[in-house]
Design a protein that fits this description.
By secondary structure, the chain is mainly beta. It is built from seven helices and 31 strands. Among the domains are: 150 residues, Cupredoxins -  blue copper proteins (Immunoglobulin-like), CATH 2.60.40.420; 123 residues, Cupredoxins -  blue copper proteins (Immunoglobulin-like), CATH 2.60.40. The two termini are 39 Å apart. Bound molecules: copper (II) ion (CU). The site of copper (II) ion (CU) has 7 residues, from loops.
Length: 515
């Protein structure tokens, strides 16, 4: 019998009623996982592996002004740690998945084939997507040979009825240029399935962005940061109770805080190295980690100036650039930043560090300023036209949600309720603007599907330094964050949830239905 979180929920309820709970590891304090886990990744010499850039995939065909892709989700063996092979579950068998390059108002249709041994669902994170293509957690593509009647997990509801081995996802791309990403969203199993490799970049471009003199071509670099732990044979280590995913029964310590790996990967390579010229480069930073937040800085910092010039957020270009010494990125957040390497001498080594990390996770990657080159890029002080933020004076409804972890013997809840695909927690009207006030304990990365939002305030004060622009994910940082949301696009059911993927799998998710 597979043990799902629903069984655990029942056990948690029993524990609350005074019965013995055999899973003492469920609610443990921060740091317990490292102490209780003997698994340490094989050592890697940092800053020796060149930074890979995920391949850009090409449409299988082009028809009626739309691009049609075919993608196969499958297992493959990939060299991540030098000299070892890791079985990944990848889109087209690669980790991170191939990058999709899309244009504003040019639709993309992706036929996703499932050749993995488990059900999958694909979500385009940050996409304004019709409900049937949004990757609802129970809208599954079943594996080959899977009999939905015989093997459907309890609670997966009507998943089997319309499920196939492939599904066509339609993305209208009616949205300004932005750095999006796609990843697995299967209910209860998003954490382990993303961990095994099911995530990739989706870069949406438009004429506004093209007209700016920002760094382009090979100076416009996706930076997908995540952390993993490996066994000695190179395989991914993810403690899980589900036998189809992995072994290690009883090790659920990660559930309280999420899975933290001891090896930092950028674009799938450990602590890589990138040679650059002494010019500006644009980095589209995505925190694709399950649970880890990063506090990024440059070591050494550039003399006399801020390290990073932020030009974009989750939802695309900012109106004007923002200069930062550090970039704090919670899971699923994106930061488009410019680093100007002309501030360093040729030959300099500049490390992208993670100030908040412990041990080896304090390093992320290294740049080597390898050559001099003429500067051809610039960062204009005006980036994008009026971003047309929602008007907080025109709000129809204010809703309040509490994100609290560690309830019900380890489950995570929104307003004291765990996820139920059949329960609607908010019914915003299509075209309306609402204010959502979210309280968190401790910090959680809050993510809404379908919509982007504007952060209005933090704990009654102004938004934080990393809240600028249109956002689809915001780090709640253990306080109260108010956001303004305009519900546009489609009627239908979507989720909002914590993007700590273990919290999400432990049911910190809810539905809104645009009516
Ligand atoms: Cu959370």
């Amino acid at each position: 019998m597979s043990i799902t979180r629903r069984h655990l929920l029942k056990m948690g309820a029993m524990a609350g009623a005074g019965l013995a709970l055999p899973l003492g590891a469920i609610s443990v304090p921060v740091g317990r996982l490292a102490a209780s886990s003997s698994v340490r990744s094989p050592g890697v010499e940092p800053f020796t592996v060149p930074l890979p850039v995920p391949p850009v995939t090409k449409p299988a065909h082009v028809h009626g002004g739309a691009d049609y892709y075919e993608m196969v989700q499958k297992a493959a063996r990939q060299e991540i740690l030098p000299g070892l092979k890791t079985e990944v579950w990848g889109y087209d068998g690669v980790f991170p998945g191939p990058t999709i390059e899309a244009r504003r108002d040019r639709p993309v249709v992706i036929r996703q084939w499932n050749e993995l041994p488990v059900p999958v669902s694909v979500h385009l994170h940050g996409g304004k997507t019709p409900p049937g293509s949004d990757g609802y957690p129970t809208d599954l593509i079943l594996p080959r040979g899977h009999d939905p009647g015989a093997h459907a997990h309890a609670g997966h509801g009507s998943a089997g009825k319309h499920a196939h081995m492939f599904k066509d996802y339609s993305y209208p791309n009616a949205h300004r240029a932005a750095t999006l990403w796609y990843h697995d969203h299967r209910m209860d199993f998003t954490g382990p399935q993303v961990y095994r490799g099911l995530a990739g970049m989706y870069i949406l471009r438009d004429d506004v962005e093209d007209s700016l003199p920002l760094p382009k071509g090979d100076k416009d670099v996706p930076i997908v940061i995540c952390d993993r732990t490996f066994r000695d044979d190179g395989s991914f280590y993810y403690p899980s109770l589900d036998p189809t995913l992995q072994e290690e029964p009883g090790v659920l310590a990660h559930a309280a805080n999420g899975m933290f790996g001891d090896t930092i990967l950028v674009n799938g390579a450990p602590w890589p190295l990138l040679e650059v010229s002494n010019t500006m480069h644009r980095f589209r930073i995505l925190n694709a980690s399950n649970a880890r937040s990063y506090d990024l800085a440059l070591d050494p910092p550039p003399p006399g100036e801020k390290a990073f010039v932020q030009v974009g957020s989750d939802g695309g270009l900012l109106e004007a650039p923002i200069r930062h010494d550090r970039i704090a990125a919670a899971p699923a957040e994106r930061f488009d930043v410019i680093i100007d390497f002309s501030r360093y001498p040729v030959g300099a080594e500049v490390t992208l560090t993670n100030i908040g990390g412990e041990g080896k996770t304090r390093d992320v990657m290294r740049f080597v300023v390898a050559r001099g080159e003429k500067e051809e890029s610039a960062v204009p002080e005006r980036l994008a036209p009026d971003l047309d933020f929602p008007d907080p004076g025109n709000v129809e409804v204010t809703r309040r949600f509490q994100f609290i972890a560690g309830v019900f013997g380890g489950m995570s809840a929104i307003n004291q309720k765990v996820f139920d695909p059949d329960r609607i927690d908010a019914r915003p009207r299509l075209g309306s603007t609402e204010v959502w006030e979210i309280f968190s304990d401790p910090s959680h990365p809050f993510h809404m599907h379908l919509v982007h939002f504007k952060v209005l305030s933090r704990d009654g004060g102004p938004p934080g330094p990393y809240d600028a622009g249109w956002k689809d994910t915001v780090s709640l940082r253990g306080g109260t964050v108010r956001v303004a949301v305009r519900f546009e696009g489609w009627r239908g059911k979507y989720v909002f949830h914590c993007h700590n993927l273990e919290h999400e799998d432990m049911m910190m998710m809810a539905n809104f239905e645009v009516v």
